[in-house]
Amino acid sequence: MTVSRTICLGFLATILVGSLLLMMPFASAQGTWTNPLIALFTATSAVCVTGLSVVDVGMFFSFWGQLTLLILVQIGGLGYMIANTFLLLIIGARFTLRDKIAIQQALDRTGMQGSREVLLSIIATTAIFEISGMLLLLPAFLADRQPLSAIWLAIFHSVNSWNNAGFSLFSDSLIGYQSSILVNLTITGLIIFGGLGYQVILELYLWLSNWLSRRERKFVFSFNFKVGVSTTLFLFVFGTIAFFAIELRNPDTLGGENFTTQLLIAWFQSVSARTAGFNTIEHGKLTTAALFITIALMFIGASPGGTGGGIKTTTLRILVSATRSVLRGKDEVILYQRRVPLSMILKAIGVLVGSFATVITATIIIAITDSEVTFIQVFFEVVSAFATVGLSTGITASISSAAKLTLIVTMYIGRVGILLLMSALLGDPIRSRVRYPEENLLVG
Predict the structure, then answer these.
(1) How far apart are CA 282 and CA 168, in angstroms?
(2) Are 207 and 288 in contact (CB under 8 A)?
């Protein structure tokens, strides 16, 4: 069995086990068996770190059901192969070549050196951020909750934020805390660092250590860091300004709030749309223009190696740079004085085309099965599922069973990735030694 198939089947097995657990009476607040479709949808959304839900998680599930959900989110965020390999570390098993290749593919790394050390660092980084997030959120929840309830709320939302999942125990997500600077900055901080990924966090740590020690040798950021971080910052600024400008006169979102709250809401929505799924306003009340901007941000998603989904920031940057090179009459794609390999350009094109095909197919299916739902609502829901975001205009619970199953498949494809899924289905590509003659073709 190929590594890609192992990863895809691993996620599938985790979803099925999670579904069975969430069906059990102990997981339900009513102490009864849960509808299999509800359990399957929720487990898929958790393992795929999406956050879409057909029920009110805080009311429908018991504490044990919520804990099961949180464990599934953690496994999904870390990645099945990373979580599985961590268990091997606990029992003291040695890494085989297959284990190292699995870690390499799960993290989108190009090398296999130090796989054990990298894995332990990821686990430690995850724990540090999630515990820090919990401690920062605790004072806000203690203000209007009992201590035990506040602690659980802080843990649940911290883990979901870091893993870019978006499940909330509040019926209105985080609308009740839309003016809280502490909650807004803590949640968005966890979302950002979780979406950037371990490699970026490691480089930031090394740069800070170098700066504090005042070493003479200048720290040089990697190519991946420069592209991912710069693109992410641009999208955050663009999203915040766009949301603020478009929704400023909308009385149902920003119109009735003070300036500080308006900025917090615009910033939060810009960050959350990049695969997190929390919301501080009702997306069903957004203008059509704001919904389309949200769809674009969701489709782009987070950075490679992070806990978020989407086509990834690096894919977008490569495609934009390739387009710019074509318009300038150049036959090379240059970024930060580095030439992007043709294989990476082809990979980016493959991701884009495969992602478009998945979204379009799912949108058509749901538009047929649920013709009473508007196109923008269907399109929004599908992109949210594919990019593993979790934002919704409020139609998730009311759509048909066929539409829910379509979203389940879409979430799974979005989580494992188009290229990895194709590799699992078709097998690892075999490099051909045959080179065919080149010929021009009319394009555009």
Answers:
(1) 14
(2) no
Say which DSSP state 243 is in.
H
d(CA 164, CA 415): 12
Name the least confident of 71-80, 252-261, 287-296: 71-80
Least Cα distance to 306 among 231, 238, 248 occurs for 231
Closest CA to 392 of 42, 3, 52: 52
Q: CA torsion sign, 200 to 201 to 202 to 204?
A: positive
What one-character DSSP code corresponds to residue 400? Answer: -
Only one residue has tokens 């493959």, namely: 350
Helix H or strand E encompassing 242: helix 223-247
* Gap between the Cα atoms of 307 and 305, Å rounded: 7
Query: In this predicted model, what pLDDT tens digit does every residue of 10-24 receive, in sequence order?
Result: 899 999 999 999 999
Contact assessment for residue 166 and residue 80, using Cβ atoms and an 8 Å cutoff = no
Per-residue pLDDT for 33 more than 60?
Answer: yes
- d(C-alpha 390, C-alpha 392), whole Å: 6
DSSP letter at 185 equals: H
Q: What is each CA distance from 315 to 19, 225, 336, 346, 351, in whole angstroms?
A: 33, 13, 15, 10, 8
The pLDDT value given to residue 84: 46
Distance from CA of residue 64 to its chain's centroid?
Answer: 25
In the beta sheet, which residues pair with residue 28?
Answer: 61
DSSP state of 388: T
Amino acid at 403: A
